[in-house]
Amino acid sequence: AVALRIALSLTGFIAGKCMESVLRVLINLTHDVVSWCQVVLDVDLALPSIMHLIVASQRERRLSEKRVDAEEGDTEDVEIAARCLDRLCLALGLLTNLVQAIPETKHLISETCTYFTTTIIAVISSSQLFSVLDYNCPGQRRCLRRCTCPSRVDALACLAQVYIHYLKSPNEVDTVVRGHMAVLFGLLMERSP
């Protein structure tokens, strides 16, 4: 059982590193390159995955920091919190690139507020569904395409909840995330009714 836990832990660590590498490559490819941004947006699960990464990274980082603050955590929790912060920043960077390069992206994301209720999802492009999320969704397999949790909200509300956490945070590093999110919200609001 211990060997299995270690193997799963190592596998999860390697998968996380691979995902972070993919995010770094995507950030470089999508930086002011409309064609690459469109390629990313053409993938059905792109925006839901980016939003899930943002929310899940924030949640996992917050939990790791709570364990460290309560002196229940160890150096592994500090490392987990740092990796979560990195993953959060990468996902925010990719989302920002998409919003900057393709103006329709910001309108599509901002319009999700008018279409969402707790029981429906909105079509945001001809080939893509963007799901609502529960900020506290544990990320179960059934929530891959769209969150099925009972208290789900739209993408902007999830981003706002992440931002509110960083507004309240006294951590110096969090000012970077707060600033990045403020820029992202500014881009999302630009020329929106």
Notes on the structure:
There is one protein chain. With 193 residues, the chain is mainly alpha-helical. It is 68% helix and 4% strand. Strands 1-2 form a two-stranded antiparallel sheet. A hairpin with a 2-residue loop joins strand 1 (122-125) and strand 2. Mean pLDDT is 75; it is low at 111-135.
Q: What's this entry about, in short?
A:
The chain has 193 residues and is mostly helical.
Shape: globular
- Put simply, the count of helices is 7
The structure class reads mainly alpha
Q: Which percent range fits the helix content? A: 55-70%
* Main beta-sheet strand count, sense and barrel state: 2 strands, antiparallel
Order of helix and strand elements from N to C terminus: HHHHHEEHH
Strand content: under 5%
**Low-confidence parts, pLDDT < 50 over ≥5 residues?**
111-135
The quaternary organization reads as single chain
Please state the CA-atom Rg, rounded to the nearest Å. 17 Å
Care to count the β-strands?
A: 2
Major β-sheet strand ordering: 1-2
Report mean pLDDT, rounded to a whole number: 75
CA distance, first residue to last residue: 56 Å
